[in-house]
Amino acid sequence: MGELREMVSGPTELEHVLTRLEILLNDVWDQRPAGAATSATAPLVSLGVDSLTLALLLDKVGREFHIDWTADTPPGAASSLRSIADLVLRRDGGGATAAEA
């Protein structure tokens, strides 16, 4: 029964985290190209995210999801929205919930 629950809840939690990450990215991305679509798996650099925007995004993600970016963050953990979401879910044991804004 636990495996069924994981299969049902997993994508929902991932979708929730990805949605929050996209909202946070939109909050800090002042120079987003008009009409640019955001792909969760595309490298943020290829989407046009510059280093300042990435730093601002990681700061917001760290505060909302209680992630300390200086401690044992694997290389590539912030290369795409999906990789950040995977890190959030791993750090939270698979049950991430965003802090109330």
Report on the architecture of this protein.
The structure is a single chain. This protein is mostly helical. It is 56% helix and 0% strand. It has four helices and no strands. Helix 1 crosses helix 3 and helix 1 crosses helix 4. The radius of gyration is 14 Å and the shape is globular. It starts with a helix and ends in a 10-residue tail after the last helix. The N terminus and C terminus are likely disordered.
Write the layout of secondary structure elements.
Elements: H1 2-28, H2 44-47, H3 51-65, H4 81-91
Rounded Rg: 14 Å
- The helix content is 55-70%
What's the end-to-end separation, in Å? 34 Å
* Mass-distribution shape: globular
What's the pLDDT, averaged over the residues? 80
State the secondary-structure class: mainly alpha
Major sheet: none
Count helical runs: 4
Number of strands: 0
Uncertain segments are 1-8, 95-101
Strand content: under 5%
Order of helices and strands: HHHH
Oligomer: single chain
